[in-house]
Amino acid sequence: MNKIVLIVAGGSGTRMNSETPKQFMLLQNRPVLMHTLSVFYHYNRDMEFILALPESQAEKWNELCKTHDFGLRHQVVSGGETRFHTVKKNIAGLPNNSLVAIHDGVRPLVSLDTIDRCFRVAAEFGNAVPCIEIPETLRRLSGKRSRQVNRTKYRLIQTPQIFLADILKEAYNQDYRSDFTDDAGVVENLGHAIHLVQGNGENIKITYPQDLVVAGALLKNY
Amino acid sequence: MNKIVLIVAGGSGTRMNSETPKQFMLLQNRPVLMHTLSVFYHYNRDMEFILALPESQAEKWNELCKTHDFGLRHQVVSGGETRFHTVKKNIAGLPNNSLVAIHDGVRPLVSLDTIDRCFRVAAEFGNAVPCIEIPETLRRLSGKRSRQVNRTKYRLIQTPQIFLADILKEAYNQDYRSDFTDDAGVVENLGHAIHLVQGNGENIKITYPQDLVVAGALLKNY
């Protein structure tokens, strides 16, 4: 089946207290986004690579690619108002009978094994979403109080989230809702069961300055 | 009010694939546990410091203290069969009208602010437990399926968990249950409302080898 990777990089630098969008920040002297693209390229260089960036960042990305001599083939497309709109807009033209992996641009530490597990399960069941167990005690808020819940019943969700293109397109025809925090939620809302797959703990999302420190250390250790 | 810190360090090196218990592993050339004790000492050197270690590790700890010239005053006590039994056994003799902070030995990155917030809230309400928001989409398993839940309604729980000694002692008079994964759960089971306080994201629990890498990087950045 045809494989497509859509890397979504819509972030600004707000939560990083920086002018530089987090996906352009340097990790071992290369922008985060180049690490992310490279992992998928190492997994399978024959896939179709699509990178969704805010229009205002396209020129800067071009410059960065030149500066860092980044030659991995990929198509740059523009993002929408929210992550939902970015995905909706950029999957519309994809061939139905393909597998589309949607991945956060700021998750450069996804492992080749995670990617492989997701593609295999998605090929069999129509979708696959990586997750990890909850490492801490978990509590649920309820009004001003909270109560402990059984953490073994919960999972933290990562990306890549992989779907058959036709299901994904149908799901994204739904109206936008603010509680659609990932693609699995959108597809699930259509009535599809989501297939969870083991992710890798290092696959953190770079959001805050401390995350960049952590990612740098993990990358060095890989 | 009298302040007591009970640091619980019962781990072996199993999940670290190592012979060395994780609390003795080196972080910037010092055992993890020395970093942990130092933070509390920096917060308030006049507190009472109790360190619960498996009996088999006491001698090694003594040696490490000599090797690393570690002079912070603390009392070493022996642990029990589980964390529950370790706490139960070592709080029994503490003065009732004191605040007892129970902290994981393998959380060396707790911030002074987190400790301070917890002691202040516990002094007012009888208990305080630090928590952080959930950074990822969260799903709840249900049989072979799962469904997205509202992550803003959940919190990941850390330590130090601080309690009035008399409440804590009463709580630990209950029979052991395997779902008592932290002290808050034990106290809550007695009918007390738990008071959540903002923790700090760096305050990770060192469990797997990658955690040691992450902690090292965060420590360097502190």
Describe it.
The structure is a homodimer of 222-residue chains. The first copy, chain A, is an alpha/beta fold. The first copy, chain A, has helices at 32-43, 58-67, 83-91, 112-125, 165-171, 183-188, 209-221; strands spanning 2-8, 26-27, 30-31, 48-53, 75-78, 98-104, 127-133, 137-142, 145-149, 154-157, 161-164, 196-198. Chain A has a single domain (2-129, 156-219), classed as Spore Coat Polysaccharide Biosynthesis Protein SpsA, Chain A (Alpha-Beta Complex). Helix content of chain A is 32%, strand content 26%. In chain A, the strands form 3 sheets. In chain A, strands 1, 4, 5, 6, 7, 10, 11 and 12 form an 8-stranded mixed beta sheet that branches. Chain A has a two-stranded antiparallel ribbon with strand order 2-3. In chain A, helix 2 links the parallel strand 4 (48-53) and strand 5 (75-78). Chain A is globular and about 50 Å long. The two termini of chain A are 30 Å apart. In chain A, 44% of the residues are buried. The A-B interface holds A 131, 134-142, 145-151, 153-158, 179, 181-182, 184-185, 188, 193-194, 196, 201-202, 205, 207-208, 210, 213-214, 216-218, 220-221 and B 131, 134-142, 145-151, 153-158, 179, 181-182, 184-185, 188, 193-194, 196, 201-202, 205, 207-208, 210, 213-214, 216-218, 220-221.
